[in-house]
Amino acid sequence: MGYREKYEEWLERLPEDSKLLEELRGIKDNETEKEERFYKDLSFGTAGLRGKVGAGTNMMNIYTVGKATQGIADYITGYGKEAMDKGVVIAHDPRHFSREFSELAAGIFAANGIKVYSFPSLRPTPELAFMIRRLGTVSGINITASHNPKEYNGYKAYWDDGCQVSSSVAGGMTEKINAVDMWEGVKTSSYAEGLANGSIIELGPEYDREYLDKIESLAIHEGDELDLSIPLVYTPLNGCGSIPFRQMLNDRGFSNWTIVPEQENPDPDFTTVGYPNPEDPKAFRLSEEYGRKFGAELLMATDPDADRFAIEIRDSEGNYVPLNGNQTGYLLVNYVLEGHKTAGTLPEKGAMVKSIVTSTLSNIIANAYGVEMFETLTGFKNICGKIPYLHENGYKYLFGYEESVGYAACEDIRDKDGISAGMLVAEAAAYYRKQGKTLWDVLQDIYAKYGYFAEDEPNIILEGIAGSERIGRMMKTFRAELPKEIAGIKVEKVIDYINGYEDIPPQNAIRLFLENGSWFAVRPSGTEPKIKFYFYSKQDSREAALDVNARIKAAVLDIINAIE
């Protein structure tokens, strides 16, 4: 069935009072818009679903969410009554329709005889991940589009290990989802009915407390070792982090912090920030204003579902400097290892995990402490998915992260967690302040001790059908015509992950290593309409590393942008 036929089918099927019907009638003369909405079904993968909210098979709406949920319910029931009784835990973020989609999903699972645990209001993604293992559920669902713009929503799916679904589980779910008739094949019941008959159980505040207790148990230094009067600014960017992050700061005894008031409460339009991604320095505009008024040494932000975390720190001249995810990672890797060594708790077989596109400076730091740094594909289903292997081989998991401001400090929370990352960074800042140092000083010390690295992670956004096709051509052409040198520097080694590499499964990613020690990687995003690049260089000074990295980046982007 082509996109026009699908469009007509929706016009016939939708109820007369449906806002989705009104939306579709409004585009009756716009063939481009029809095609964008109906040229494919919104794809389900290891990241679940993600798309713009609206009418169409390629959009997030009650029909695409219902179809996906029924398919996952069918997948779970295929495992029998034990899996159905273990149930599913569901959470959601503050976005438009997040609560409605979460209640819809809960009602569908309940109608299929699957026990449901739900939160009465928005909760962070990492709390959802923690609750899967805490409650012993077979699966978990979070309605969120993470840090995407306000037009988007999404659907993250987890399995019983507390990680987002693996490729094999996602494949099984996809097969079931594809078999569901979205108009006639979805079993439903109301959320209120489920609460009344006990098939849906709402989780009380004691579970929030357990999540925070788990995070706070990660403390490395406490009490007199810390200067808890350090001035801090935090913004949840109008998302889920507000309540738990504030509670964590209070629990830990921080006495001199403030929250950005315009971004304290949920706002699905993200009015004061626009693009609610803490990786983007523009998201810190208001934080910087309050930081200057407040004299803050550290600015902290979590994204709308509070799994990502980013910071700005004061440099030697007092200016706020945004740190990229790699740099915050250096500080955390160094602090965790230094802390364990000081406390005498550094294990004999310590292990950390990072993604293949994350800076190798963290490998050098880990190795200096006798800790092994393992590499996985991008995504915390892979990073945290490494934990069982580590346990089986006698390793103690200490930390995991990737450059896209995601950090996993607790092995019982099998996903990136902005609340625990925030606690450790605030603790580190307070610890070093007690010693008369700032996080900026510590970062410079790390570079001086382990090597001056430069990091850059640009991306090219290409939306819609044409954008998706061009990204495909970019990867295909670049792979077929790999450069022998970049910016006059010889390419020494290429790792193409398309068919897997050593013990790393396949992914559409390529990594090139240059003879001067620099390297870069290219891959399409799995959740957003963009192609991503990762550039790393090491030189005798930070300035030299930045210069070399910039030249390599310019040369690579010239090659990529020339591909039409």
Describe the structure.
The protein is an alpha/beta fold. The chain has 4 domains: 1-34; 40-203, Alpha-D-Glucose-1,6-Bisphosphate, Chain A, domain 3 (3-Layer(aba) Sandwich); 224-450, 3-Layer(aba) Sandwich (Alpha-D-Glucose-1,6-Bisphosphate, Chain A, domain 3); 453-561, 2-Layer Sandwich (TATA-Binding Protein). It has 20 helices and 22 strands. Strands 16, 17, 18, 19, 20, 21 and 22 form a 7-stranded antiparallel sheet that branches. It has a 6-stranded mixed sheet with strand order 1-5-4-2-3-6, sandwiched between helices. The longest helix is centred in the last third of the chain and has 20 residues, at 542-561. The mean pLDDT is 96.
- State the distance separating the first and last CA atoms: 29 Å
Helix % is 40-55%
Question: What would the principal axes of the Cα set say about the shape?
Answer: globular
Q: What's the CATH H-level superfamily name of the largest domain?
A: Alpha-D-Glucose-1,6-Bisphosphate, subunit A, domain 3
Q: What is the third-level CATH name, the topology of the largest domain?
A: Alpha-D-Glucose-1,6-Bisphosphate, Chain A, domain 3
Overall number of structural domains: 4
Q: Number of helix segments? A: 20
**Which whole number gives the mean pLDDT?**
96
Largest sheet: 7 strands, antiparallel
Summing up helix and strand content along with how strands pair, one would put the structural category as alpha/beta
Number of strands: 22
Low-confidence stretches: none
At CATH level 2, the architecture of the largest domain is: 3-Layer(aba) Sandwich
Determine Rg (CA atoms, Å).
24 Å
